[in-house]
Amino acid sequence: KGYEKIPLLASANLRGDYLQTAIASVAYQYGPGLATATPNFWTQVTTGHWQDAVTNLNDFGDAYDTRRDREAALIQQDITNGSVPVKC
């Protein structure tokens, strides 16, 4: 899985099924080098800056705009329904 390496996702308090799906989708494309290939995104998801991750995915700059937009929408859905806390 790998989610246990992200303390916020391993937390029993954090629901966020869509969030996990979005992160897994990015990780699937970038593989084990996710942290180095996407340092901003990695920092955002490991520190719980979900809205920043949404903004980042919406302007990611890779060849998969449609996929990144869908991932951003998934995270936004968890933010909107209160499944994940939002940091300012």
TrEMBL record:
What keywords are annotated for this sequence in UniProt? Antimicrobial, Bacteriolytic enzyme
> What InterPro entries is this protein classified in?
Lysozyme-like_dom_sf, Lysozyme_dom_sf, Pesticin_C
One GO BP on record is: defense response to bacterium
Query: Which residue numbers delimit the Pesticin C-terminal domain?
Result: 19-51
- Which molecular function GO terms apply here? catalytic activity
Q: Which residues form the signal peptide?
A: none
Q: Can you tell which superkingdom this protein's organism belongs to?
A: Bacteria
Cross-referenced Pfam families, in alphabetical order?
Answer: Pesticin
Its protein name is Pesticin C-terminal domain-containing protein
